[in-house]
Design brief:
It is built from 5 helices and 9 strands; from the N terminus they run αββββββαβββααα. By secondary structure, the protein is an alpha+beta fold. The longest helix is centred in the C-terminal third of the chain and has 12 residues.
Length: about 200
C-alpha cells in the first residue's frame, strides 16, 4: 500500500538524523483523548496532544492486502488519574469507538515537526486491560481496523432470494436457500445406504 506524504516529510525521512513521534486520538463517549509518544505536549493540527508519558508505546502497524481486519496494540500509562479512570470505565464507553494514529517526523536539530503528520491507522477500540507487575503497571488497549465486522451481521454476507430475483428476474436458484441453511439435511454415505439396503433385504428392521 502506498502512503502519501508531503515533500518535507519525505525529505526528513531520508535524512541521516531525524526523530519520530506518534499521535493517537481516542474518541470514547465521554470525550476526546489526544496523546503522543513525545516526552512533552505537542501542538499540531490545531490541537494539543498530551505527552509526559501518557502514551507509553504504539505497537507495529500491519496492513492487509485483502482488506482483512488488523489489530494494533497501544500502551497507556496508569499514572495519570484520568488514564486510570478511562481504563476502569464501562466497556460500552470505548468499545467500537474511533481511534486514529498519525506518524510525524521531527527535525533532530530544531526538535520541531517537519511536514504534515501522516495518518497510518484508523479503526476502533476493542478491548482494554490493566497489566500489573511488582512495582509498576501498564494499561493495554487492543484496537482493530474498521473492517466489516461479520460477528454483528453475518447474514449480510449471503445473497438471499429477494436480492437474487432483483438482479435476475424469474431465477429461483436461491428460493430455498434460507430453508436449507436453517434446516440442514444429513445424507447417508453410499456404504451406509448399501448396508441398510442389505439389512432390509434380509428382513432386519
Amino acid at each position: 500500500m502506498t502512503v502519501s506524504v508531503d515533500a518535507s516529510f519525505a525529505a526528513l525521512a531520508g535524512a541521516a538524523a531525524y526523530g519520530e513521534l506518534a499521535l493517537v486520538e481516542l474518541r470514547p463517549t465521554t470525550g476526546v483523548l489526544r496523546l503522543t509518544t513525545w516526552p512533552m505536549d505537542v501542538e499540531v493540527m490545531g490541537y494539543t496532544w498530551k505527552g509526559l508519558g501518557n502514551l507509553g508505546q504504539v505497537g507495529e502497524i500491519h496492513e492487509s492486502d485483502d482488506g482483512g481486519a488488523e489489530k494494533l496494540q497501544l500502551s497507556l500509562s496508569p499514572v495519570p488519574l484520568d488514564m486510570r479512570a478511562f481504563a476502569l470505565s464501562d466497556p460500552h464507553e470505548y468499545r467500537d469507538r474511533p481511534v486514529r494514529v498519525w506518524v510525524a517526523m521531527v527535525d533532530a536539530h530544531t526538535l520541531q515537526i517537519n511536514g504534515a503528520p501522516v495518518l497510518r491507522f484508523a479503526g476502533v477500540m476493542d478491548q482494554m486491560r490493566i497489566d500489573r507487575e511488582e512495582s509498576s503497571g501498564v494499561i493495554g488497549m487492543t484496537c482493530r481496523t474498521l473492517s466489516y465486522d461479520v460477528r454483528s451481521n453475518p447474514s449480510s454476507l449471503r445473497m438471499n432470494h429477494t436480492q437474487h430475483v432483483r438482479r435476475f428476474p424469474g431465477e429461483r436458484g436461491f428460493e430455498y436457500l434460507q430453508g436449507l441453511i436453517g434446516n440442514p439435511t444429513v445424507y447417508a454415505s453410499r456404504a451406509y445406504q448399501a448396508y441398510m439396503y442389505i439389512r432390509n433385504m434380509l428382513g432386519y428392521r
